[in-house]
Amino acid sequence: MTPMKPFTKKAFAYLLALFVVLWTVVPIVWMVISAFKPSNDLYDPNPFKGFQPTLSHFQGLFSGANSLWSYLRNSLLAASISTFISVVFGMFAGYGLARSHFAGKKHLSFWIISTRMAPIAAVIVPLYVVFRSFHLLNSIQGLVIAYLTFNLPFAIWLYNAFFAELPIALEEAARIDGASRLRTFFYIAVPLVTPGTLTITILCFIFAWNDYAFAATFTGPGTQTIPIAATQLMTQTGLDWGKLMTIGVVTVLPMIFVGLVVRRWLVQGLTLGAVK
Amino acid sequence: MASTLKVNSPELMHSQPAPLKARPHWVTTYQFWMMLPALLLLATLTLYPFFYLIYMSFTKVSLIGGISFNWVGGKNWLNALNDPGLRQSWWLTLVYFVSTVGLELVFGVAVALLVYELVWGRNLILSLLLMPMFIAPVVVGLIGEFMLDPVHGLYSWMLRVTSLSDGNILGHGPSAFAAVVLMDVWEWTPLITLITLAGLTALPLDLLEAASIDGASYFQRLVHVVAPLCLGVVTVALLIRAMDAIRDFAIILITTNGGPADATKTVPIRLYETAFRFFNLGYAAAIGLTMLVVSIFLATAFLETLRSRQLIK
Fold first, then answer.
1. For residue A48, what pLDDT band results from cuts at 50, 70 and 90?
2. Is 70 exceeded by the pLDDT of residue A2?
3. Taking the mean position of all CA atoms in its chain, how far away is CA B166?
4. B131·A145 Cβ contact <8 A
5. From B33, B152, B302, residue closest to A241, measured CB to CB
6. Among B34, B61, B104, the residue to mutate for chain A (most A Cβ within 10 A)
7. Which residues of chain B have pLDDT under 70?
8. Could you list the residue range(s) of the whole structural domain that residue A89 is in?
9. Is A13 in the B-facing interface, judged by CB distances under 8 Å?
10. Would you tell me how many other CB atoms lie within 10 Å of the CB of residue B220?
11. Do residue B31 and residue A145 have CB atoms under 8 angstroms apart?
12. How far apart are CA A255 and CA A261, in angstroms?
């Protein structure tokens, strides 16, 4: 086999890359296009027929009695409250864990992370019964609690990884200069893990925002989140793909945007601190 | 009593000098107090439902007029052992798990190696490739169902035009199973790519150059230089993906919901149906506990691997 010329090799690599990009991007682009396609063009047998872009799906969804606004508000509330609680509690606990050395530390951290890895289907069943007896079904509070079961351990574990990397000498210097433990924590350690805080906040928010199973099981009229709005459309009048893809766009685009904002720290975040 | 008093007397206390740096009792450490609120919260959120789950698996749960539990002993567990449908679901889950995670690993590593070779537009291409993993699995299912809609779907249109299929992908068992596997692969291959690429970019360049100067071909470099150095990172990627693959089931729930004819009824789908369609919560609890045990086994393997490679403290 003769070695390929550098140019041929390069062209081949970019051709392959184009193929991979198409496989990845086409469904997303198609979803966005379909959200602006009039219904009669959407149901045309020829998918490539030209069409006049329309906002009718957006207008239909964001107006009227059962508008998407309330679903959007519920999603925002449940995701941001659970994220806030996870980040605050996780920050303290992650620091405490990173700075402590005790015999059972291995078991404690295993317990923390194993709660994050519990299968959703297995968690839903007991939570449903518990929520039913505490009247937490069909409430934002219940949804926040459900999201905490996976976001809190995630935040603790990841803060632990971020704090463990800080050189302890900085904090010792502050202590020698007379700063209290809390002052050292807030003025030295916390500012130094700002990328960590940003990553943890965004990932927790995405995890909660993207949930379907918990919301589908625990919420009722008035507390449903955006993904549930989509499934309600699926059962009512057959499949209204224009509206469904519009809900898809509203659900997905903000998350892609914030996700790519933290791309630099994403690896560390998603591998729970194991890869930098 | 007398001896206790003696210990407290000043002379005795001074006769034994205290160690210069006494180790503080753990209750008095700041670390303990910083961890306490979060750990209490986490314990309440997870241990209470966990013990509930164990209790439920030995009862018949009735939701009519408040909740009541009737002790049935090991009946649910016997059912879980003898249910041929559940056994079939476990097989499906295994096939689903191995094929999704396996394909994601192969494609993810291949794409990472490809992106590593690109110079121009590398950041843009990577950003485009990462998009699917931020998408809610339920929307991935929606998009997949739309692309495969027998009448209006783009992909089923392409399959019809090329006469590869009649276009009704989700209507037949084997193709529906392949479709839900590919939807998962579409969403999560980028995760493996991202992690592997982080490992590749951390490689010492001089090593690769040295191998190149010594006349090693691309594949020789791959096998003898890149592979040994990136094995740890790829293992992390594999385990992270495996843990999450066991957790979520939204894609199947929204697209086929286990059908057609149970062709995609994995264990979580069967569990969900048992609990919230037939409201057999006791039996669902037994299935759930089994899943939990399996995932804890995987988590242990995961953490032990990371620890043995010194990737976490």
1. confident
2. no
3. 34
4. no
5. B152
6. B34
7. 1-24, 310-313
8. 63-270
9. yes
10. 13
11. no
12. 10
Whole-structure pTM value? 0.90
Q: How far apart are CA A193 and CA A91, in angstroms?
A: 10
Please report residues of A whose CB lies closer than 8 A to that of B233: 275
Q: Do A274 and B311 touch (CB under 8 A)?
A: yes
Residues in chain B with CB shorter than 8 Å from the CB of A128 are 275-276, 281
The verdict on residue A27 lying in a domain is no
Residue B122 forms contact with A (CB below 8 Å): no
pLDDT confidence bin for A4, thresholds 50/70/90: low
Nearest CB among B198, B250, B296 relative to A213 is that of B250
ipTM for the predicted complex comes to 0.91
Domain positions in chain B: 76-140+188-308
Q: What is the pLDDT of residues B160-178, one digit of tens each?
A: 888 787 778 888 889 999 9
Instruction: Confirm or reject contact between A210 and chain B (CB < 8 A).
Output: yes
Count of structural domains, chain A: 1
Tell me the C-alpha distance between A78 and A224, whole Å: 10
B76-140+188-308 topology per CATH: MetI-like fold (1.10.3720)
Looking at residue A145, its pLDDT comes to 95
A18 domain residue, yes or no? no
| Domain at A160, CATH number | 1.10.3720.10
| Gap from A65 CA to chain B (nearest CA, Å) | 24
pLDDT for res B90: 94
* Nearest C-alpha in B relative to A262: B127
